[in-house]
Amino acid sequence: MCKSLLRISPMHFQRTQATDSHFQQLIALLDQDLWSRYKEEQAKFVAHNFMDLTARVIVAYEGEQAVGCGCFRPTEENGTVEIKRMFVQPGSRGKGIAAGILQELENWAKQERFNRAILETGNQQPEAIGLYHKTGYTQIEKYGPYKDMPESICMAKKLG
Q: CA 3 → CA 6, 8, 93, distances in Å?
């Protein structure tokens, strides 16, 4: 009897842009996840989740399957980027994919001579909060549009 072996391609990360179809599909899933966690509060965040052409996007792949994403965009504060739209599909969580995406984003930002990253996450996302703490982010005062949002947690990290 002949057994066939399923060969799984390794994880890889791809730099792309906000118009990438895989990124668009993943952030649609992210938005569904956020609506399920935050219900009506999520409506306050919709206006802040747009991605313009300045966004630098990472898509994570397991083989040919896009399973996660994240991006950054420069802020008005010199030398600072904002990490945005971090997401890993539920079936691919717990494999270090989010940490890999975050590392790729930080490396890219450092290559472009940015020296600080900021981000906003929510109090109903313990897995995200844990990842950011584990990778060196510390809580900061809420910034910009998140100042008056009780659900928001803002964090920062010096890069390199």
A: 10, 16, 29
Q: In the predicted model, what is the mean pLDDT of residues 43-49?
A: 57
Fold classification of 11-158 is Aminopeptidase (3.40.630)
d(CA 97, CA 93): 7
pTM of the model: 0.88
Burial 54-78 (b: 16+ CB within 10 A, else e): ebbbbbbbbeeebbbbbbbbbbeee
Chain CA centroid to CA 33, Å: 13
Check if the beta carbon of residue 70 is closer than 8 Å to that of residue 102. Answer: yes
Q: Which tokens sit at 33? A: 């996840």
Q: In this predicted model, what pLDDT tens digit does every residue of 70-111 receive, in sequence order? A: 999 999 999 999 999 999 999 999 999 999 999 999 999 999
